[in-house]
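Input protein
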Amino acid sequence: MLVCPSMPMPTMEILAATLNRLSLYYNYFQIDIGDGIYVPNRTVQIDDIANNYQSIDNFENLVLDFHLMVKHYEEDIAKLAKLKNNLNIGKIFVHFGLNPDIKNLRKQYGFPVGPVLNFEDKVSDLKIANPPETVDFLQIMSISPGPQGNPFIPESLIKIEQLRKAGYESKIFLDGAVNDQTLPYINALKYKPDVICPGSFLCKPTGEELKKRVVYLEKMSS
């Protein structure tokens, strides 16, 4: 399993400081954008990043995915399109419950776009709206989307098995409460995610404690 730290930061200052600290260990991150509408919390916004990305050390060598927890996701994708020449933007994640036209978004903006499945979203619904073979990647939420600290929902992990048995062979990301309490459970699964996105487990500690957690994740994900 690949580790991609999740960044639901409230301000650009905190986002830059966290990225600068974690970029000693990682160069691939997922930036969470919350609008305070689709999710209850409001995080750093695309405009903030566009105006201040140079406060991120070594930003040229970082790959940034964007998890859009926003109602008006297409507006944010359009803003990200204007940053293509400034940032290494990887994947864009849009919540399935908002009924995104994945194929059209890819074609219009030139980004790889994939759906995010909340706990209430069913794999069978995804198969109807977007046949598995047409989805290059997707993300499963193992918490209710929103601020860090929401409780882990172990039942959400059955979606990984359901997807694999349905013939889905592309990458599956897992986001939400990935930490030392839940990783043993995740690691024991027959069908594991390809990418795990720890949030507060990596974002909060500093110094030696952060190093210990990085080593732990490396051991558990190998």
Remarks:
- The mean pLDDT is 94.
- Strands lie at 2-3, 6-7, 28-34, 63-69, 88-95, 113-117, 137-141, 171-175, 195-197.
- The CA atoms of residues 8 and 32 lie 5 Å apart.
